[in-house]
Amino acid sequence: MTFDGPKHERPGTATDAVHAGQPAPRPGEPVVNPIVRSSTFHWSGPGDGIDLLYSRYGNNPNQRAVAGKIAALEGTEDALALASGMAAISMTLLAGAGSGDHIVASRHLYGATHALLTDELPRRDITTTFVDPHDASAWQAALTPRTRVVLIELPTNPTLRVFPVGPARRAARSGGALLAADMTFATPINIRAAEHGVDAVIHSATKYLGGHSDLIAGVVAGSAALIARVAKMMKLYGGSIDPQAAWLLERGIRTLPVRMERHNRTALALARWFSGIEGVRQVIHPGLPAHPDHECAARLLNGYGGMVSIVLEGGGEAADRFCSHLRLAAPAPSLGGVETLVSQPRHTSHVDLSSAERHALGIPDGFVRISVGLEDLEDLKADFSAAVAAALPLATPLP
Ligand SMILES: *Cc1c(COP(=O)(O)O)cnc(C)c1O
């Protein structure tokens, strides 16, 4: 499905977000795609002149509509929506690699992706070499004759590291491997990864694409040939998206450009503000000049994203006090919704590591990840200000 409006040139991102995947206006037809709950569709055989439609195949009208919108936003030939971000990642990896094959992956990956590569895929005789994504020569050095997929994620969670795509792309090209990228934290608004040579652009649509913390979904965008291979895995493993979730995702994506503009703006303002607050030892945001990847992020991204991490003086206890004194922002895992959420990696994504191991990864105790929502900046500042004050290490008691 394509944009059916003025033909003068390629529509802009905001126009695509609203119109791509929508039917052309016809008198009497609904303006918004209806939810089609039917699991199956009338079809008597190839003579009908259409594909067999069945909702596990990913070709229900709502599944196709949201896929068309995603392909338009990513600037790719095709796209596919699936039941979760992990379904998108696992089906893409299984489409790319089989028994005896090898994957080269960034060391900084979402926890479940890391577990998939280390615990699950070896059971299928698919092995992974992890590399430091900032070491430009590491990608090429890790290639084997059986490398079929190179996997990156950026910005990374929760330290928001950004690195150039070029070295991973050149290694993938030279080895004939697929370059896959989990771009959940960036969204197609902040970077269109396909323009940087990424073959499989993956998102947990549960986060910014859906944007309202009310659905679980994942997407993959790429060439028609790649999407056909991923769709085949999805049909076999059964990871297709429910039409209701597809419809909600399509609804969410219509406002993605305006939401991201606000997420980007408020997060940068908050990061700058936190930098001057007593009790905050470190502020981590790629938009701050102090961030180790600031220059790379400025070159690569259209916006720095809606995530800010802070490290509080006073370690884990201070972070616990901070979280329990918030009145507007709420402690909860996940990110990318309209509401501001905070989480401590030591309780969530990095709970299985020791304090020292987390420290080595740049996640000392006292680290709080903030998914900055769409609330008024002044209200967020007031909330965080009171919570930081409550978290401050207690003054030395009187003798
Ligand atoms: C949340 C997340 C995932 C997993 O997505 P689900 O929709 O929960 O399956 C994968 N990658 C990143 C970067 C995420 O933030």
- Distinct small molecules bound, one entry per kind: pyridoxal-5'-phosphate
Instruction: Write down how many β-strands occur, each being a DSSP E stretch of 2 or more residues.
Output: 12
- How far from one another are the termini? 74 Å
Overall body shape: globular
Percentage beta strand: 5-15%
The biggest sheet amounts to:
7 strands, mixed
Strands of the largest sheet, in order across it? Answer: 1-7-6-5-4-2-3
> What is the string of helix and strand elements?
HHEHEHEHEHEHEEHHHEHEHEEHEH
The residue-averaged pLDDT reads 95
DSSP summary: helix tally: 14
Low-confidence stretches: 1-6
The percent of residues in helical segments reads 25-40%
Rg, alpha carbons: 22 Å
Coarse structural class:
alpha/beta
Overview of the molecule:
The model is unreliable at 1-6 (pLDDT under 50). The chain has helices at 13-19, 61-74, 85-96, 111-120, 138-142, 166-175, 187-190, 224-237, 243-254, 256-274, 294-300, 315-324, 355-360, 377-391; strands at 78-82, 102-106, 127-131, 147-153, 178-182, 200-204, 218-222, 280-284, 307-312, 330-331, 341-343, 367-371. The protein is of the alpha/beta class and 399 residues long. The protein contains 14 helices and twelve strands. The termini are far apart. α1 runs antiparallel to α2 and α2 (61-74) runs parallel beside α9 (243-254). β2, α4 and β3 (127-131) form a beta-alpha-beta unit. Bound molecules: pyridoxal-5'-phosphate. The site of pyridoxal-5'-phosphate (PLP) has 15 residues, from α3.
